[in-house]
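Thread: "does anyone have the structure for this chain?"

Original post by V.I.:
We have the sequence but no experimental structure in hand. Need at least a predicted one for the grant figures.
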Amino acid sequence: MGFAVIIDFSGKSPNQDNLAKVGAWLSATDANQKTVLRVGRGWGAVAGGGASIANIDGLVAVMTGAPEWRDSKSQAYANEHGRAATLIWLWQRSGGNVMKDIGGRFSFVIWDVSTGAGLSAIDRVGQEALCYARFGEQMIISSKLDCIRIAHGNLKMRPQAIYDLLQLSCVPAPKTFFEGVFKLEAGFQLSFNPSDIKVSPYWTLTFKPDPAFSDPRSSNILSVMQNSVEKAAGGIEDASLGAFLSGGLDSSSMVGLLSRLRPTVNSYTIRFHHPRWDEGEWAQIVAKKFQTNHREIYVEAEHVLDSFEVLARAFDEPFFNDSALPTYHCAKAAGVEGRTTLIAGDGGDEIFGGNERYIEFKRIDQFGRVPALIREFMGQEIFAKIPMLKKVHGWQQRYAIPMPDRLYSYGEFFGRSPDVIFSPELSAQVSNEATFSDLRTLLNRFEDYPLVQQLMGFDMQLTLADNDLRKVSRATEAAGVNVVYPMLSDQVIDSASRVPEGDLLPGMKLRHYYKEMVRGFLPDPLLTKPKHGFGLPFEHWSRTDADIKAYVREKMKRLSERGIFSGSYLESVSDALDKDVSNGLEYQSWKLAMFESWLEIHT
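Reply from O.Q.:
Generated one for you, tokens below.
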């Protein structure tokens, strides 16, 4: 699904051959996608099967997603005329001030052909994507970076983006992997005309403590979530609908709420033959509780080689989150059984304070209130060797690192000089500071809130919009399946933002509020089980599976010929594959092999 728009402010018609190539590429990425090509004086647009396009009274609009219209008249108009036409209708009625009338999941671009002035935006949490670039007199706006690359020609790689990828596993908005091409952040809009481009937020996550939401049992949030699930599942036949079920609180809640609406829920769980990564036993408890039609899909080492190129092709800029692989196989299994849409539980950690690091950084923040002399004393290396004081010593070490750098201080690349990682040519163009300066800008938007809510706001963009949603959406799309996120409806987010921080995560009780909210609804064992991340045993397989080891080494060999990384860095990663015990470096082989695969396909 997707679209691309070229606006030529000089009035020339865009190259139709390039637009046709964009359309061919969109069709190739989705066998069920039929593209529509429209060209006018000074503009051209390609709309894929999931997009709506309209040209009315000199206004052109393209829109994708499932927008929610704020009033009944707009909804009635949309039912009769479609999304893009409704956007134009609202534009005319409001004098261009349309954002107050649109919610839900969407991305769009609308412009006045006669003046070249227009607006583009994506939804509040980045369920959809939008990128843009200005090349001379031409403005290109698209839901996918590949469309800009194809329409414009070769784009130049941005060296700093490679460091971003190694540190964060993604390239955070508003920047991209390419020079001069940008992504809209969640809740942002792009206003443009022939002489100016302006990017600004039309919505910002705000926390509004309300005593009425202090008690999770009487806050009515679960009912709001129920309505959101009902809306997400609306119009989809039982046989076409399924749900991801990891065994965590959020996906389990989605399955449970869906079971109230449908006679049988089709649930899908990924399993591994490695206890550290496997969460299948918890999913079984949920499936039994809600009597779902449950499927378990085991992912083995051989699935890595089968899926590597598929995943590299699925992302329009390099992306290193390896849990995209099990997500893809889960969606693929559901698609084989006829499911066209899967319900996902993503977003619960970010809006209900569920990430484990919130607890850890709350402890570190409290440690910062200890008198400075005591803190500095505990920072001496001798205390790192005393078991009872080792953790306190660690808090001092972390507290000395400013936020948000501290969040990534546990990573392999934190503090490493670029010249250790990159070739001399690239290391001169890369810096640690450039990445963390952008992250500070993001965190500072929430500086007026308590620490946990600062981190929640930060994660809404970086962890959710830039990483998790992108991972799930692109992986399921690669499997030919749609995905919806009921937890991220405007109504659920608005309700969650009203929970006072002290009630959300009192003391060090992770997800306390949410657990109390679903107590009696979800099976009791889920409320006491340890937090379990969704990942892939790649660090194990890369050391124990000969085929994977040979594959990634071959990819790294090709990558070494590109002159991007230093030889010593690549050798250290390769050597880690022969170690009996993990040292963290072998996981970098996933990133490097995926990077080479992506470059081979997209450049």
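V.I.: this helps a lot. The mean pLDDT is 91.
O.Q.: and The chain is about 45% helix and 15% strand.
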